[in-house]
């Protein structure tokens, strides 16, 4: 469906609408560049096809994920001939609404169309497949809280001619309903429209050489990029919830392991008798009963904490165990050897000392802290290398 040629219009220059319009570029860092997107959680879960769509978007517009749409062209939208949107809503209702006591005249119609064209709209395009057809239908919407313009886009087979035809036009919505409609549309691919806009009556042709396919393809690709983004957020949200549940279970397991380790290695042995023996490394070694290793359930070798019972500086505490050094226990023929990694005054141990098996749960604590940070959204899943 194409409008026959009538009076031709001149293409206006891009003016202050671009330079004076307040920008609306709240772009998340993950969507600031294609490289950022590929490195993000969503990018890692994206298919090759989805990555290609996003890449094409950035090739077209390096701010493809802006909440604005801005190209170099003027958008022309045109009322359809002999439709209620034009004959009744515009002519009979809009003129007296926007101009008090106004009546229809060509001059007043021109004024209303100019007034409507100078409004800043939200813009949305939507491609749908017709029922029982292999053809797509492309609808467009321009709206504010008070004005709503709906129509259909028609493109010639050679894509040299693209027309945005207005099929429905209404205004003066109740604020509550309009706000809900606006919120829904924005969440579903509507963008602040910053291009110059011209609204034409029926039977007027576009300026010579104008091809609006650029605006259409830009809007369609931008809409598709946001569809991919929203779909990935939904899909990865479920994945992250599953990962979160798995990590919570894993955290409980680590907590259980920590308790087991603490209980298993809480055994300690008091050594009252020992003999100093030569140490092949030049350090200090002592000989103790092999019962020490058996009580501590040491199979071959183990690091030991060496503690002394000493006077305490704490209030209401007379004595407390204090770690003085560490030793390395190994089995010999009929005894155990404890080697100290550095020189130690054995006189400190002559009245007896206590040893227990040294166990490190540092790695477990690190893992549990990482899981806690992830569950509290302090770091993203890709930084957790648990598997």
Describe how the helices and strands are arranged:
Layout: H1 16-20, H2 34-39, H3 41-45, H4 48-60, E1 68-69, E2 75-79, H5 84-98, H6 106-117, E3 122-129, E4 136-143, E5 147-155, E6 162-171, H7 175-187, E7 191-193, E8 197-200, H8 213-264, E9 268-271, E10 275-277, E11 284-289, H9 291-295, E12 301-311, E13 319-331, E14 335-340, E15 353-357, H10 362-375
Parallel strand pairs: 1-7, 2-6, 2-8
Antiparallel strand pairs: 3-4, 3-7, 4-5, 5-6, 9-15, 10-11, 11-14, 12-13, 12-15, 13-14
Helix pairs in contact: 4-8, 8-10
Unreliable stretches, pLDDT < 50, 5 or more residues? Answer: 1-24, 381-387
Radius of gyration: 39 Å
* Overall helicity: 25-40%
Strand content: 25-35%
Name the shape in a single word: rod-shaped
Q: Strand count, sense and closure of the main sheet?
A: 8 strands, mixed
Whole-number average pLDDT? 80
How many distinct helices? 10
Oligomer: single chain
Q: How would you spell out the order of helices and strands? A: HHHHEEHHEEEEHEEHEEEHEEEEH
Q: How are the strands ordered across the major sheet?
A: 1-7-3-4-5-6-2-8
Termini separation = 59 Å
SS class: alpha+beta
Total strands: the figure is 15
């Amino acid at each position: 469906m194409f409008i026959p040629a009538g009076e031709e219009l001149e293409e206006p220059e891009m003016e202050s609408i671009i330079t004076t319009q307040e920008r609306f570029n709240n772009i998340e860092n993950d969507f600031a560049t294609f490289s950022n997107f590929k490195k993000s959680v969503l990018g890692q879960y994206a298919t090759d096809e989805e990555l290609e769509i996003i890449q094409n978007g950035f090739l077209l517009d390096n701010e493809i994920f802006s909440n604005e749409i801005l190209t170099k062209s003027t958008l022309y939208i045109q009322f359809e001939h002999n439709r209620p949107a034009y004959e009744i809503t515009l002519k009979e209702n809009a003129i007296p609404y926007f101009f008090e006591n106004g009546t229809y005249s060509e001059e007043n119609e021109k004024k209303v169309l100019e007034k409507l064209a100078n409004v800043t709209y939200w813009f949305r395009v939507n491609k749908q497949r017709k029922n029982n057809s292999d053809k797509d239908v492309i609808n467009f919407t321009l709206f504010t809280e008070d004005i709503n313009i709906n129509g259909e886009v028609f493109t010639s087979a050679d894509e040299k001619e693209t027309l945005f035809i207005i099929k429905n036009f209404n205004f003066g919505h109740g604020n509550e309903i309009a706000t809900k409609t606006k919120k829904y549309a924005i969440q579903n691919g509507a963008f602040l429209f910053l291009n110059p806009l011209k609204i034409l009556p029926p039977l007027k042709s576009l300026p010579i050489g104008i091809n609006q396919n650029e605006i259409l393809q830009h809007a369609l690709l931008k809409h598709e990029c946001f569809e991919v983004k929203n779909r990935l957020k939904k899909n990865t949200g479920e994945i992250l919830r599953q990962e979160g549940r798995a990590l919570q279970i894993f955290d409980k397991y680590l907590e259980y392991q920590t308790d087991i380790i603490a209980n298993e290695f809480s055994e300690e042995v008091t050594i009252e008798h020992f003999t100093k023996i030569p140490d092949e490394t030049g350090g200090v070694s002592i000989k103790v009963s092999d019962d020490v290793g058996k009580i501590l359930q040491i199979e071959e070798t183990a690091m030991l904490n060496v503690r002394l019972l000493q006077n305490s500086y704490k209030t209401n505490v007379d004595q407390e165990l204090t770690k003085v050094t560490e030793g390395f226990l190994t089995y010999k023929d009929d005894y155990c050897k404890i080697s100290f990694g550095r020189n130690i005054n054995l006189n400190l141990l002559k009245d007896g000392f206590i040893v227990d098996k040294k166990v490190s749960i540092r790695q477990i604590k690190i893992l549990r802290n990482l899981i806690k940070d992830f569950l509290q959204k302090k770091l993203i899943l890709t930084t957790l290398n648990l598997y």
